[in-house]
Every structure is written in C-alpha cells, then in structure tokens.
Amino acid sequence: MADARVLFDDKTGCSGWQAAHCAAAIFLVGTLLPAIATAEVKVSDFGKTADGVSVKEYTLTNSEGVVVRLISRGATLTEWHVPDKDGKMADVVFGFDDVAGYESKGNGYFGATTGRVANRIAGGKFTIDGKEYQLTKNDGPNTLHGGVKRSLDKVVWDGRPFENAKGQGVVFKYVSPDGEEGFPGTLTTRVTYTLTDKNELRIDYEAVTDKATPINLTNHAYFNLSGAGAPTVLDHELMLAADNYTPIDDTLIPTGEIASVADTPFDFREFHKIGERVEKLNDKPGKGYDHNFVLNNQDGDLALAAKVREPKSGRVLSVFTTKPGVQFYGGNFLDGVKGKNGKPYAHRSGFCLETQHYPDSVNQSKFPKAVLRPGETYRQTCVYRLRPNE
Ligand code: GLA
Q1: Among 42, 51, 137, 194, which is least packed by CB within 10 angstroms?
Q2: Helix (H) or strand (E) holding 168
Q3: Model confidence over 18-44: pLDDT tens digits?
Q4: Catalytic one among 180, 181, 310, 354?
C-alpha cells in the first residue's frame, strides 16, 4: 500500500508539501474516498466530544505483536503495549477510557500533540515583525501548550491510516485558522505516526503558514515502563544527552541562561535514578524535574536525546529527535487522577520527554529560532523506541 505522503504528491502533482492548501484540499477529498489504506490499520469509533464531534480510534500492530492506539482528538497516543524481558506485555502510556476522560480537568495533556507552541510563552505575548500578539494566559501569568480552548491537544484532527514498507501509521491533519488562540496565520499542520517492526513509534511533524508565526510541536506522552498505573517512576534510570539546561524563574520561564548540568541534580550524562536527587528540587520552581535540557546535538539531524530503563521489567525507552531541546517532566503535578481501567496516576508515577524548541523561544534572542514564515516548511521528527534489554 502506498505511503500517504506519496498519495498527496501523486495526486496533486505538487512538489513536496509546499502547496499546503492544495494538499489540504486533496486530503479532504481523500478522506471521503472509500477503501483508502484501511486494510490493516483498524479504525473504530471512540465516542463524541462534548460538542458532538466524532472521535476516531486507530489501532496499529507490528510483526512483534506490539500494539499502539491513537485517537483523532488531539492526534493523541492513547495506548502502547510492549513486552518486558520475559515477553510479558504492558501498556506503558497514560490515557483514559473515553473522550470525557480526555476532556476532563485531570488530563495533563496525556499523549497529546501539543501546540501551536508547546511549553510556555512568558506573559502570553510576543512581537513578530513589529506587531505584538497577546494570547490567553492559562498557567499563572504565562501561556502553556498553545492556549485554552482550541490548542492542538483539544481539537479533533482528520486522520488517515496507511501502511508502507516502514510499518503502519496514521497521518493526522489540522488547519488552524488565522487568529486561533491568538496566533497569527493559517497554520496547516500534519503529524504522521508510524509504528515500525523495530518497535519504534516515529512522529513526523510538518507545518506551513500564511503569516509569520511561532511554532513548537511536540508529543506529551507520559510513560511508566512498569506499566501505566504503577506507583512511581523514581526507580527508573534516566540518561540525557545534554551537557546544559535552561534554568527557570518562579513561573517556569527560562532566565535566558544556558547553564552546565555539572554538579547539579540535572546531570544525567550518565544514568541516574530519577528519584536519586529529586528531593533537592522539591521547594524549587517546578517542584521537581520540569526543565528544558539543551541537547548536545544541535545540527537538526535525528540523534539520541534520552534513554530510560526500568530494571525489573528490563524495558528501555530511547528517544531520538531533530529538535534542539527536550523537556524532562517528572509528573510532579499528577495527583492520583484515575485513568484507563480505573488505575490511579499518582504523584511522580509518570514521566514525559517532550522534544522541543526551548520554552519561550519566541521571546529569547539567544535561543534557537522557532518562527515559521510563509514559504517555509516546519519539519521535525521524534522517535520513541521501546525494547527490552538494550
Ligand atoms: C508540561 C509542563 C509542566 C506541566 C505539564 C502538564 O510538561 O512543563 O509544568 O504543566 O506540562 O501538567
């Protein structure tokens, strides 16, 4: 079966994905055509949003029996069932059983695609080409993860399943109108998830705009490698390919400094248990780990950013990215909300590794630039690989 990407290009005759609106039109037509690429990926109804919009669920499987589920609300990763060292399967990501769960206050962006600008923008405002924009604040004085009602984690995306030589996947597409959540420009965004036979979940992000606009797309999956709902991640061992991090103020906005991790609880250049030094951060901003790490690889190629291993199950998560940073969030705000199968997600029982541009990049002149302009295509990739004993 053809790659969805190829389908776009073949039908449009457009080169690549530059002609966004042309591709957007073909995408909509494509979703109406019967029998497109659905032979292997299972598509089911997941329910409706409070506003009555239908949400679809997609089930991907690979030759190892690994199963991933995604839903169209928020282009969200909802389940990932992987074997431990003895072949015993567990679902290692957080989620809810129904749409109401995802719409509830207890949903800390579980598995969602976050944007248009993931992480924080100081004061919720920025200036581009001399014009100031003010967003709605939803995190004290700041804007977090793209706003309040129509941030990318909350809207329902168009999904199209596919299968190609690399594996099974879904392309999610969403066109965010000019001014949505206060951001300038019509932003056409495509997020492609592919589950490979090597137990990798590859996420490719692409976007184009018709006005200059800040952008920072990531995935907000929470992992517990013992299985979602296990009591803690403090026993997991973490390695980060980062010699530096960005220190934060009381509202979790970077101060602008790029600081060495040496001799601090942020030094994960060698494996350390997440819990080993976390108590030292209890009374600091973020109340634990909730920081951006400056990845050693800054050249835009796909490179290893982080590894996490859980000694008892033997499961190992490796994270690769093209982006310059990763937010390591240790689940400090989790408070026991009940997720899938009624399992509680306790304080520090899940961690996120959100590959990203640095928080507040749009306002920080020394950070790598994260503004997309008309004629450019935003392209970033993150690969989560989950295998036992590696
Ligand atoms: C991000 C933030 C955290 C927290 C979570 C969601 O990771 O950095 O501070 O807001 O999202 O709870």
Answers
A1: 51
A2: strand 167-176
A3: 344 444 444 433 333 333 333 489 999
A4: 354
pLDDT recorded at residue 17 = 41
Q: 354 catalytic, yes or no?
A: yes
Spans in the chain with pLDDT lower than 70: 1-39
Decide: 42 and 79 in contact? Cβ < 8 Å. no
Q: Which of 375, 370, 2, 343 is nearest to 164 (CA)?
A: 2
Residue nearest to atom 5 of ligand 1 (CA): 108
Cα Rg, the chain, nearest whole Å: 20
Structure tokens at 136: 């709605």
Nearest to 59 by CA among 76, 79, 82, 74: 79
> With a threshold of 0.70, does the pTM exceed it?
yes
Q: Find the Cα–Cα–Cα–Cα dihedral 338, 340, 341, 342, rounded to 10°.
A: 0
Half-sphere exposure of 304 (CA within 13 A, CB side): 11
- Which amino acid appears at position 319 of this protein? V
> Going by CA atoms, what residue is nearest to atom 8 of ligand 1?
290
Give me 238's structure tokens: 């973490």
Range of the domain at 328: 4-388
pLDDT of residue 390: 81
Q: What is the DSSP letter of 145?
A: T
40: domain CATH number is: 2.70.98.10
Reported as a single tens digit per residue, the pLDDT across 278-308 is: 999 999 999 999 999 999 999 999 999 999 9
Nearest CA to ligand 1 atom 9: 290
* N-to-C CA span, the chain: 32
Residues with CB under 6 A from ligand 1: 108-109, 144, 252, 290, 327, 329, 333, 352, 354
Report CA-CA distances (Å) from 114 to 151, 205, 216, 317.
Answer: 7, 11, 8, 21
Cβ contacts of residue 223 below 8 Å, gap of 6+? 92, 93, 94, 233, 308, 317, 350, 351, 352, 353
Distance between CA atoms of residues 11 and 23, nearest Å: 9
Domain count, the chain: 1
**Active-site hit among 220, 236, 291, 357:** 220
